[in-house]
Design a protein that fits this description.
about 150 residues; alpha+beta; Multidrug-efflux Transporter 1 Regulator Bmrr, Chain A; 10-stranded antiparallel sheet; globular
Length: about 150
């Protein structure tokens, strides 16, 4: 596990709410890729999932976005059709590379939280800047913004 300093990163995404959202959205990644290609926007990195914890009606729900990083200053509208614009904030991120498939995210999240506690790090516990992305070799990167 490690800490990385990251710059602000614009992206385009589609989102869904609910526990099954990740599975539904994985199939829609090609839709986002086609959307940015048609509009002449350059993808600038690996696609990722971003997780938002929403509080509504006394409970918590999970909103998940499947996103593709894009170039800064893109002239594409903030939202169009089902594809919306987003921005990952700059800052320090706690990062954990998980061996295995995305099904390991629950265990990986627990490990990252334990490590962050040992390091006395305050994490973005409202769920706004948790994300995961695939890596080579069947690994998954899980990251969360560290609060100052």
């Amino acid at each position: 596990m490690r800490i990385e300093e990251r710059h602000e990163q614009p992206y385009r995404a589609v989102s869904r709410i609910g526990a099954e959202a990740t599975e539904d959205l994985a199939d829609r990644l090609s839709e986002v890729a086609e959307w940015i290609e048609v509009r002449g926007v350059e993808a600038t990195g690996t696609p990722f999932f971003r997780y938002h914890a929403l509080t509504a009606n006394g409970g918590r729900e999970l909103e998940v976005e499947v996103a593709i990083p894009v170039e800064r200053g893109s002239a594409v509208p903030a939202s169009d059709e089902d594809v919306t614009a987003g921005m990952l904030p700059a800052g320090r991120y706690a990062v954990h590379d998980i061996e295995g498939d995305p099904d390991q995210l629950v265990q990986g999240t627990s490990a990252l939280l334990a490590w962050a506690g040992e390091q006395n790090l305050r994490l973005d516990d409202d769920g706004d800047t948790w994300m995961s992305r695939p890596l080579e070799g069947g690994r998954v990167e899980l990251s969360v913004r560290v609060r100052d």
